[in-house]
Amino acid sequence: MGKWHDKSAALQADGRAFIGGERVWAKSGQQFENLSPIDGRTLGMVARCDGVDVDIAVAAARAAFEDRRWAGKSPAQRKRVLIRFADLMQQNVEELALLETLDMGKPIKYSQTVDVGGAANCIRWYGEAIDKIYDEIAPTAASSLALITREPVGVVAAIVPWNYPMLMASWKIAPALAAGNSVVLKPSEKSPLTALRLAELALEAGVPPGVFNVLPGFGAEAGAALALHMDVDCIGFTGSTRVGKQIMQMAGQSNLKRAWTELGGKSANIVCADCPDLDAAVEAAIGSIFFNQGESCNAPSRLFVEESIKDRFLEKALAKVPAYQPGDPLDENTVMGAIVDATQLKTVMGYIEAGHAGGARLLAGGKQSRTDSGGYYIEPTLFDQVDSSMVIAREEIFGPVLSVLSFTDVQDAVRQANATPYGLHAAVWTSDLSKAIQTSRALRAGTVHVNQYDGDDITVPFGGYKQSGNGRDKSLHAFDKYTELKTTWIQI
């Protein structure tokens, strides 16, 4: 069957929580079954943590913060540990990639490069950054000295989703740890394995016990307990807008902890008739929506094509769709894998039915595939003649479904693009520099791409406008979430 199937057969996943530097089962003894979306097989049993376990983990994190076993280390010392952590991730790339693919169904080729590679780079980058950030002296009168310093906020809770389990975790824990905080991470119950393994690697790298804890479990139990906990100082959440609203409400009704959210999206990709490279625009439109099975919050799920080039665009797009047919995620040639679980498969298929019912024209896909595998797979799906009032143009599908809309006036395309509660990503393709600048300014989104899609780097912030969230991951701006600004006024 091949290298990765052999490794999969030999895998013995450890589903115990990680608290205070040790692997432990939930105090209640409760466990849940971890199923692989590749073939439906059981990967193992996972600790079902609840409020009792949250109390223990938060107490461990608080004790570690108060005795300054990590916060008290110099930035240069924390830097060395985090770089060692990133090195260990790279040394264990095959194990981490296999866990990621088995857990959530993405192709193994991307688990190795995008997920492990990106996560390790994130940890390393924040390690490198922390001893290069300077505090400030305010320009006061000569009779005083006013210092403005950053301090770690304390105990940080991080709740991350199942679509990029390792990458989303690294975007939270890297700046939080670099700044000197203690962390309690709750991965999604659908994909807990890499987070648990990361905690072991962090300990091996030199992160002291209690500083980085991982609690698998369900959102309504472990997640809610973290959001409501009176001794958690800050919570970072990536996931749905619906749950993000609940997190912020819980933060407010408990201790008014800082709550930072990165939420859903319904990103618009606008291709004008003067697009400088139509083939590149087609490749980006198709490749970006079907990457990660469409399970990306920034996926360009609404494609606006100027009417005069739409037929030519669709002809080129449909020629590329067959290359994204789902395959075995453990085959290194596969570019689109499995939907994360049966629930998400049902959700996506429901939206496809809604597209039919709403009057959209199905041009490709629309069916389940690989049904004999025991896993959850959906064909790459493309709808034409979509109207902005249709369900598939309004709601986040989180699957391999592209909605194509047409326009004759770019200002109208921008108006439709902005007519959504979300504001995560957007794009415009045009040869006209003035049009590119005016359109990018008018689009209400945290990231606007011009003549490309998915351009990204750890140095730029990631987050959205409106109901796509209120925080920014990545870049130096992420430190704003996990630090307090203190003014120290000294009279001379």
Automatic annotation (TrEMBL):
It comes from the Bacteria. InterPro entries: Ald_DH/histidinol_DH (IPR016161), Ald_DH_C (IPR016163), Ald_DH_CS_CYS (IPR016160), Ald_DH_N (IPR016162), Aldehyde_DH_dom (IPR015590). This is Aldehyde dehydrogenase family protein. Pfam families: Aldedh. Residues 26-487 form the Aldehyde dehydrogenase domain. Keywords: Oxidoreductase.
